[in-house]
Amino acid sequence: MPCSAGSALASLSAPLSLPGLHIFAIAFALEVSVGKTSTVMALNNSNILLPCTFTTCIGFQDLVFTWYFNSTELIYHGKIKNKATEPTLIWHNPRVEFVGSTTKKDNNISIVLNNVEFSDAGKYTCHVKNPRERNAQHNATIILTVVHKMVETDNTVTLIIVGVVGGLIGLLILFMLIKRVVLFIIKKTQDGNGVGGL
């Protein structure tokens, strides 16, 4: 639901709004996103950014956000008083670092997981709760895959196809050139025979 519509419904006074519609507007006012892709890949022993942003139509007050690993293990817990203040840390895993900012254009609550290990592979959920929207809650999940080394894309098949197509085009051009030469020789021969016969 667009923010304008959500804000309009949310701003209706209780007597004028139907309870169901009011709850519907509140539920869809808060949105959480981890970006266009829901999966990320990290090299073992590297650091990886886990992105998360949130949007709210009617603003926020004492907003609480948490990051969970595989839905149950808390790895970061923070609180934001309002748009004019940056988040304050409540608790975090020592390997997790907050890298977002909520005083700028985007409400960015991204984190970085340092020294990634194979056991870190799994689901990371960014959860947001906004008391100003009657404790509306929303979350988004990103899946982390940890690899020993980044695998280069094998372009062998593509190169073979390009080579074959290029070869066929080359043969076609060669055939057209030979045909033109042969036709030119035949024409010259015929013209020579015609002149000799006169």
TrEMBL record:
Coiled coil: none annotated. It comes from Cyanistes caeruleus. GO terms for molecular function: sodium channel regulator activity; transmembrane transporter binding. One of its GO terms (biological process) is regulation of ventricular cardiac muscle cell membrane repolarization. Its main location: membrane. The chain crosses the membrane at residues 157-178. Keywords: Disulfide bond, Glycoprotein, Immunoglobulin domain, Membrane, Signal, Transmembrane, Transmembrane helix. It is found in: Membrane. It is a single-pass type I membrane protein. One of its GO terms (cellular component) is voltage-gated sodium channel complex. The keyword Cell cycle does not apply. PANTHER family: MYELIN P0 RELATED, SODIUM CHANNEL SUBUNIT BETA-4. It comes from the Eukaryota. This is Sodium voltage-gated channel beta subunit 4. Residues 19-143 form the Ig-like domain. InterPro entries: Ig-like_dom, Ig-like_dom_sf, Ig-like_fold, Ig_sub, Ig_V-set, Myelin_P0-rel. It holds the Pfam family V-set.
